[in-house]
Amino acid sequence: MKYRYIGWKSQRFEACVSIAESAKNLVRSMNLGKLIGRFPRRFDIVPLIDLEATANAVGEWEVTGGDPQFDLAGFGVIPLPAGPYAIRAVGGAALDQLREASIYIDTGSGFSEDTRQRIRFFEESDGGFTAYCRFAAPVTRIRFDPADGSRPVFSLLQLEFEPTSAQEQAARLRREGEGRIRLLMNLVRLLPETEGAGGAGRVCKAYLAHLPDFVTLRVAIPPYHADLAQRYPKAEFVVVTADDTAQMTQHLDWCDCYFDPLNALRPTYIPKHVPVLGCVLDLQHMHHPTFFSDTENAMRLREYGYVFDRADLLVAISEFEKRNFERFYGVDGIHVAHLSGFMAEDAGLSRDDIAAARAQSCDAGRYLIYPAVPWVHKNHEILLQAIALLRRRGLDVPIMLTNTGAKKDRVAELKAVAAQLDVSDLVRTESFLPESTLLHYFVHSVGLVFPSLYEGFGIPLVDAMKLGVPILTGTSSAIREICGDACAYFENERNAIAVADDIERFWLDEDRRRALAEKGFVQGENFSSRKMGEQLTKAIESLVERKKRDAAADAPTFRREKRPAIIERLAVFALYLAPLDADEIATLREIEDINRYHAHLFGAQAQVTVGVDISLLRDETLRSLFAKARRLIVFDSSKPRARELATREFSHRYNDALYQLVTTLPQSDSLYRANIMDALLMGLDLNPTATHGELDVGAANIMLDPPPTEIEGVLRYETRRRSGYAVVDAVIRRGGPLSDLYNGDIAYLSAFCTRGTRLRFPGRVSLPDDSRAGH
Q: What is the pLDDT of residues 205-217, one digit of tens each?
């Protein structure tokens, strides 16, 4: 009986579907869709979540959560045809406060973030409210989200969609924008989402959503971004194939202010009368030039220099970057527009939603998450070394590394390091994930771990705070400004031992993580896309007013003075390899301060990175000694090429200097002393054709060898290769034939041996010891 009943229901359902399909086919055959599409259509609003009807009046609603949603009922079998529409509110009141309203449309593939259109209701002279939208394809279902984070009270009974023309819609938007500043924004160089638009894409879309509330916005876009016109109907879009002078001039003549948010400035000629608002996201290359190749550094200096020279006003994404602009380019009057956590904003989760989701996380699936493209400054290797140390203490801490898709070579390097340290099973890498999937991993993680060495802002940090995810992060650049006391900080994100200690405390202390999450919710409220748009608008208004004053006074323009990038004198990689004999261990145990010891050997000006075999850290005395090193890399020298991988990491990440030296310590009869190293560096300064200098116990004078012959170069290569690919015990000049190469691989060793010119320095010169070296 039960199965017969179910079968009857199934047959009835199939019959209904058949009737509906027949009706649709009839509509198509009679072309009724086009006929009906010429007339307005009204839809009842049906509350789904986070909305409650008030007792004050019929049709009055109160938003009760972070993601309020209405369904529009009454579509039937006839879709809304493609085209522009005026959305009229029936029974509407107080709709002008819905500044973050959106509609989601279904054209056959369901709702998604890609189908979202921001709308804004304008109040008519008769007291009614109208918004505008545009559909690129027929629409079969619509969801209306009246708010995004705010909790307004408003009235609404129905939404009426009236077909209109693109010309009528544009004219209406122009009328609404009368008296407003006309802003031209250049998004011509914005990459497609599938090719790495990334954070820049999220920032630009936030501007598209909010700037039209404050200015009349025209946006130059490439053909592959033409769909933005449907998603952001409050802005005017013009399609150009290049942001050159020929295609941009008419739009520059139209605008009151020109804004290029894509970390450069085009076109290369912008008339003097046009007020230009410039945006550079960060000046990382000025603090860490060795994080970039010589080609990349030259490009950044050229492109950013043009921004600072031509822009009439600069906008920075943090107070930290504002200080960088002042320091390196001598600019003033800089405006700051903080970014936000865009994924968290789009999710619209309430604190109750987040608490429920995090409560579902089970102990069996615990992990820390690090969402970062594996650029050098993101410092991924330190995490792998830290969890390797923790495993040897008996604690396994899994790490999920996301956003790794754009750097496959770096991912291969990270996997090699994990294999060398026997933690491959603890490391999971994910390329670019759908936002819903990344959100899931965020919310269900134990916490966000973030050892980055440089952040102009730190979007994932704000995402984590808004989502109640506790944070353990570094202290560099803008991070303290963004996070305040709402996160835990590494004591030293450049030392793997210190990082391991901090991760262990963070992982095991649930009460501390819970307290940090609560603080994060509060701190995260300081940032939003809306505030970002408001802050940028203030900069635009200030610039337009100042430009008018300068034009009236005929103020002269000038080129700003630039300061050089920060680069150290000498970077040293001091390797401590296993096994050590009893005398060497005794020598290390006598050292009270590892940093003073290195200063005695290499001079106080040397930036020393320690490379230590992981097996040596079983000795508690040695572990405590090395834990105080300013920079430390852990590796397992019993594994093939482990020393080379560690040397390459040093050469790429910590070689912030004009000269580098890799050597092995301790040495019972070391040639290195602070005064000798200082003299050797001066000798290299005086002999710019020398690529490197070596201490030579047999030399009685400083001598510059001639360039090696082909045979000599091959013999040098074969001699050094027997000891590995790392070039040791040579003070090597940055640049020249070694440009864009990194010590520790074959290409570097080959160039060093075959194209390098050696300066030989007496290794036994009688120089007084410099007692100040350790101070």
A: 999 999 998 999 9
